[in-house]
């Protein structure tokens, strides 16, 4: 049965499903298909984004104008997705700070989202603050586009992607070559000797992009995810992109095969044109008959001791 039809009929009195909630539902269906004898129950969390930036990388190149700090006109050079994503990984390794949150603590995030109607109109900016339980044993408080919700503690047998529990994130390999295979074989012992098949990459791409959307990760995991994306087929480089402040950037966008969720192009990750530091994401959101252009980024993140505590 068509999964989108199921999603349209699911909880009809709830607000319209966003693309990110649909992605979460696809993950649930994927779990059920992978383990029919022991299906994994995943609690519906309609306001919590889990896989927003659906990107991947292949050896695709594009001519990108990079402004060098030389006092002369910018030089045109060819930049590949691998160059951008490996540069982003190097920048993350330079900037990341190791943390070791306790199970009784919370991950605090502050996300800024600016929306503008495609047909013209006034822009609106949302400031979403969320507190997520480190081990899932306590209620979390999440916000998306100004809508807030208390999320109950995890129940036995429940799981989500990306993993909410820090202990589960710590189990993921930080070797870029092993991470995609571990995600492909999620729920069982990874077979690192078996090559990836073509039809396995789209789901791996979804899992990797979900990890990158997670504001706080164990040391080395985010750089590994960037480098792992450099091995995934199906993206293009978009020159001349900017962030909300007008900084010059390079976009990376996943384009799926016809009939897939991203056949017409997915969200765009924007990286600094000189340093390759990740700046944020450009996307579109449909709400009824209206379509909005979005720009979003994480402005702050920290580990705190209780809900509503700010760093």
UniProtKB/TrEMBL annotation:
InterPro entries per record: CU044_5270-like (IPR047789)
Superkingdom: Bacteria
Protein name: Tat pathway signal protein
Record organism: Streptomyces swartbergensis
């Amino acid at each position: 049965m068509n999964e989108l039809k199921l999603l349209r009929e699911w909880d009809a009195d709830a607000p319209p499903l966003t693309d990110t909630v649909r992605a979460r539902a696809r993950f649930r269906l994927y779990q059920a298909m992978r383990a029919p004898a022991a299906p994994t129950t995943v609690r519906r969390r309609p306001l919590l984004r889990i896989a927003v930036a659906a990107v991947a990388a292949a050896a695709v190149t594009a001519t990108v104008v990079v402004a060098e700090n030389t006092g002369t006109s910018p030089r045109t050079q060819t930049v590949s997705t691998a160059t951008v994503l490996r540069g982003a990984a190097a920048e993350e390794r330079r900037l990341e700070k190791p943390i070791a949150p306790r199970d009784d603590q919370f991950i605090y995030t502050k996300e800024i989202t600016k929306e503008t109607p495609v047909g013209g109109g006034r822009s609106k900016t949302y400031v979403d603050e969320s507190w997520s339980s480190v081990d899932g044993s306590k209620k979390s408080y999440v916000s998306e586009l100004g809508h807030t919700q208390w999320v109950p503690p995890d129940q036995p047998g429940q799981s989500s992607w990306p993993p909410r529990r820090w202990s589960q994130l710590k189990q993921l390999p930080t070797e870029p070559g092993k991470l995609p295979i571990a995600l492909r074989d999620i729920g069982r012992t990874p077979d690192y000797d078996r090559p990836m098949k073509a039809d396995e990459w789209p789901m791996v791409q979804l899992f990797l992009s979900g990890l990158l959307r997670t504001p706080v990760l164990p040391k080395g995991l985010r750089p590994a995810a960037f480098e792992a994306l450099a091995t995934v087929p199906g993206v293009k480089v978009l020159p001349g992109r900017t962030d909300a402040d007008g900084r010059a950037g390079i976009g990376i966008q996943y384009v799926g095969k016809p009939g897939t969720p991203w056949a017409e192009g997915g969200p765009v990750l924007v990286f600094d044109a000189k340093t390759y530091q990740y700046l944020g994401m450009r996307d579109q959101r449909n709400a009824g008959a209206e379509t909005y252009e979005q720009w979003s980024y994480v402005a702050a993140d920290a580990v705190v001791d209780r809900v509503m505590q700010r760093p």
